[in-house]
Design goal:
403 residues; mainly beta; Porin; 14-stranded antiparallel β-barrel; 4 helices; 10% helix; disordered C terminus
Length: 403
């Protein structure tokens, strides 16, 4: 990677350690403020059990792993709606997309994302009495609401080569950070605001369809409503993912583990998605904590005309109290192929994995066609018996998965 790139990697690692130390300083198990930060967002990820840390590749990457924004080959606006118990509801608008420069480390795939989330906890009915105990009347109060604004940035930190038999595989390394402004109101009387930050790392091996990621979320701030202050639900997420493409569709799987620092709790999630003809998607996931199952999740997706996508997800709690439906409507534009992204983000003309077969040959002068299922997808076709077989090309107008 070279000494300058190594220094950048070490600096990023130092930031991660400092954030983790700040989270641990909260100390001890207890109740955290701002439960809205614990609600998974993005109906696609929700349908997969919220196991998305290693697969993050749409605007919801801001909530799972901000490093994943660098894998977007398009600009995306997404509107999400979540219905909860009684009259609780949550709305979110998010954007993520590539930036037209090669990044701070000059390795490309720079991306920017932002979101605005509003959570409404519903109303509370309060009955009042007269001094003699007789009924005086009733009134409704807003139980609470939250406004969370987030901005994030990510880029590719570099590429390394991984020995694979007698050959070398290209590994992409992505990093991302985000900042959050949080304002919370309780019972229309008490309000508090704070700021927090998140950071993430994601690595993928396109030739094998493998990825791994980790992120530290909601680090730093505390909310003070009257006198005492409460920490945010800071957490560490880690996951591994696998993608497999074929003639008829693409399968993706992810397994995640989440550790909540203040509560000292662990949660686990597994999920998968099967995309058919680049138009339909079915999803299934399962969430589990260290003591009892949280529930099964399911979802589906449908896209129109390569740009407009509707995703729906359900969480079916074993307690029957938290059954929820989530909707996300996304609009994507400005799509680029992987080759176009490499050319834009590789200003010095260095050779990239898109220019050679995957895995890359040790002799980089021997170039062969890139293995891919769809024009923008670096997944090896399931029909290929060796890594050196020519690619199985599909219709060039086809959509690469949901990309």
């Amino acid at each position: 990677m070279g000494y300058p790139k190594l220094r950048k990697l070490l600096a990023f690692g130092a930031i991660i350690l400092l954030l983790a130390e700040e989270a641990q300083a909260g100390g001890g198990a207890g109740v955290t403020a701002e439960p809205a930060l614990l609600i998974p967002l993005g109906a696609r990820a929700d349908g997969m059990g919220s196991a998305f840390t290693a697969l993050a590749d749409d605007s919801s990457a801001l909530y799972y792993n901000p490093a994943g924004m660098s894998r977007l080959p398009f600009h995306e606006f997404a509107l999400s709606y979540l219905s909860g118990i009684s009259d609780n509801n949550l709305q979110d608008i998010a954007y993520a997309g590539p930036l037209p420069f090669s990044g701070l480390s000059d390795n490309g795939d720079a991306a920017f994302g932002a979101s605005l989330l509003y959570n409404n906890d519903g109303t509370i009915n309060v009955n009042t009495t007269n001094p003699d105990g007789s009924y005086a009347g009733s009134s409704n109060f807003n139980a609470g609401n939250d406004l969370i604004a987030t901005m994030g940035y990510s880029e590719r930190l570099g590429r390394t080569e991984l020995p694979y038999g007698s050959q070398l595989l290209q590994v992409n390394h992505y990093v991302g950070v985000s900042g959050e402004y949080i304002k919370s109101t309780l019972a229309q009387q008490y309000s508090a605001e704070t700021a927090a930050g998140s950071a993430g790392y994601l690595a993928d091996i396109p030739a094998l369809g493998l990825s791994a990621g980790a992120s530290l979320l909601n680090m730093g701030g505390r909310l003070r409503y009257i006198q005492a202050s409460d920490p945010l639900p800071s957490m560490l997420k880690a996951g591994v993912g696998w993608t497999r493409g074929g003639q008829w569709g693409v399968m993706e799987f992810d397994a995640d583990a989440t550790h909540l620092f203040t509560e000292e709790q662990q949660f686990y999630a597994v999920g998968g998605e099967y995309r058919i003809f680049n138009r339909y998607a079915v999803r299934l996931g399962y969430q589990y904590d260290a003591g009892s199952p949280l529930g099964l999740t399911a979802g589906f997706g449908f896209n129109w005309n390569r740009e407009l996508i509707l995703d729906v997800a359900w969480l079916m709690s074993t307690q029957g109290l938290n059954d929820q439906m989530r909707l996300t409507l996304s609009y994507r534009f400005g799509r680029e192929s992987r080759q176009e992204m490499d050319r834009r983000s590789n200003p010095h003309g260095n050779i990239s994995p898109s220019d050679v077969s995957a895995p890359a040959l040790k002799n980089l002068d021997q170039q062969v066609p890139r293995l891919e299922v769809f024009p923008d997808s670096p997944v090896r076709p399931s029909g290929a018996s060796t890594l050196h077989e020519p690619p199985v090309r599909q219709d060039k107008n086809a959509i690469p998965g949901w990309q």
